[in-house]
User: Fold this.
Amino acid sequence: MYMRSTKLLYISCNNIRMGSPIKLKQKLSPKAAAAKKRRDIAAAMTPKRRARKAENQRIGQRSDSDLHHSPSGLKRVSIKNNRGNFGNGTKKEK
Assistant:
């Protein structure tokens, strides 16, 4: 019984990992990965991003919502709305 449940657990975990829409690792060449790392670090260190990070730390993050930064200020919104561009999708987002 123990072996059987272990095997089923392994298969279940494997299916979740393989079918997940969130990809943990991109398949990039070493040169492309290094360039992406430089771009990501540069983007994270812009004054605007650093100010947003500091503001988030002051307010505090909750597990049931995201903090949405907009020109009109900061508001707490559902995770689904914030990450899905409020129903407009993210493909055309600028």
Observations:
- The radius of gyration is 19 Å.
- The first strand starts at residue 66 and ends at 70.
- The first helix runs from residue 2 to 19.
- The chain is about 55% helix and 10% strand.
